């Protein structure tokens, strides 16, 4: 009998506990992704050379991508340098955890449970608030909730909408966008490859032709998931940079 993907896969059994903290398969995947990030950048920067080798070049290309295309492009050199560490950490943490979803024997993104996207959204939210208050302690909240150019009698409508969209909707959408993309991607991959196994080994015969089709779709969707993994890391990080840019804008 064919068993399709289930939401239960995102609630795995506890493997062991570290004190009061239960550790599941997803937590182990998150640990592996975190160690991979640290290892890659340690290896890429431990012996810096004027004429870089291939691995150092790749590492520098990744760092320059975040610095030039996200931080400096949106925030300028000064503010870009200030917030570059948090934007770089955010981008590569999301990227590596997303990519675990297509790695054999892991097969699940570290961002496919709400804890990680929510934590990153909280970090993004706190950074946005900090940047705005630091830039303009007296006017940040006032200008956010009472935008200039609006007739005073409309503030009774505009201010609640601004509060909801700016201070509530942003962290929620950041969390759900990343979470849902990773969950759906995992479910689709499981569906294609489970169908391949079912048609090939359970049904057999002419059903094997369908197995070839589902396998082809699975492989194609795996390539697509790599693109999604990179894109979601980019979108989350660039939206964080956009929020910071809005917070430090001159009108605040």
Secondary-structure blueprint of this entry?
Layout: E1 14-18, E2 21-24, H1 25-45, H2 54-99, H3 115-135, H4 140-145, H5 155-203, H6 208-247
Antiparallel strand pairs: 1-2
Structure, explained:
With 252 residues, the protein is mainly alpha-helical. The chain has one domain (7-247). The protein has helices spanning 25-45, 54-99, 115-135, 140-145, 155-203, 208-247, and strands at residues 14-18, 21-24. The model has no long low-confidence stretch (mean pLDDT 90).
> Given the helix and strand composition, which structural class is it?
mainly alpha
Overall pLDDT score:
90
How many domain modules? 1
> Main β-sheet, in a few words?
2 strands, antiparallel
Radius of gyration: 22 Å
The dominant shape is: globular
The parts where pLDDT drops under 50 for at least 5 residues are: none
Keywords: ATP synthesis, Cell membrane, CF(0), Hydrogen ion transport, Ion transport, Membrane, Transmembrane, Transmembrane helix, Transport
Transmembrane segments: 26-44, 83-106, 112-133, 153-172, 178-199
Family: Belongs to the ATPase A chain family.
GO cellular component, one term: proton-transporting ATP synthase complex
Brief synopsis:
This protein is mainly alpha-helical and 252 residues long. It contains 6 helices and 2 strands. The chain is 73% helix and 4% strand.
Any descriptors?
252 residues, globular, two-stranded antiparallel ribbon, 4% strand, mainly alpha
């Amino acid at each position: 009998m064919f068993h399709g993907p289930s939401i239960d896969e995102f609630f795995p059994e506890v493997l062991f506990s570290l004190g009061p903290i239960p550790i599941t398969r997803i937590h182990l995947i998150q640990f592996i992704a975190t160690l991979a990030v640290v290892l890659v950048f340690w290896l890429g920067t431990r012996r810096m050379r004027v004429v870089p080798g291939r691995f150092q070049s790749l590492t520098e290309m990744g760092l320059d991508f975040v610095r030039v295309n996200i931080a400096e492009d949106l925030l300028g050199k000064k503010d870009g340098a200030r917030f570059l560490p948090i934007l770089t950490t955010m981008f590569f943490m999301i990227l590596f955890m997303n990519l675990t979803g297509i790695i054999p024997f892991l097969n699940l993104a570290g961002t496919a449970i709400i804890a990680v996207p929510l934590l990153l959204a909280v970090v993004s939210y706190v950074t946005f608030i900090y940047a705005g208050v630091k830039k303009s302690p007296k006017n940040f909240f006032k200008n956010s909730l009472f935008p200039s150019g609006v007739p005073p009698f409309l503030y009774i409508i505009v201010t609640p909408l601004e509060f909801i969209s700016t201070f509530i909707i942003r962290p929620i959408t950041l969390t759900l966008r990343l979470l849902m993309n990773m969950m759906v991607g995992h479910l689709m991959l499981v569906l294609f490859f489970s169908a391949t196994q079912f048609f090939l080994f359970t049904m057999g015969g002419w059903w094997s032709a369908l197995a070839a089709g589902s396998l082809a779709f699975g492989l194609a969707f795996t390539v697509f998931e790599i693109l999604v993994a990179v894109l979601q890391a980019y979108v989350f990080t660039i939206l964080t940079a956009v929020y910071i840019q809005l917070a430090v804008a001159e009108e605040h």
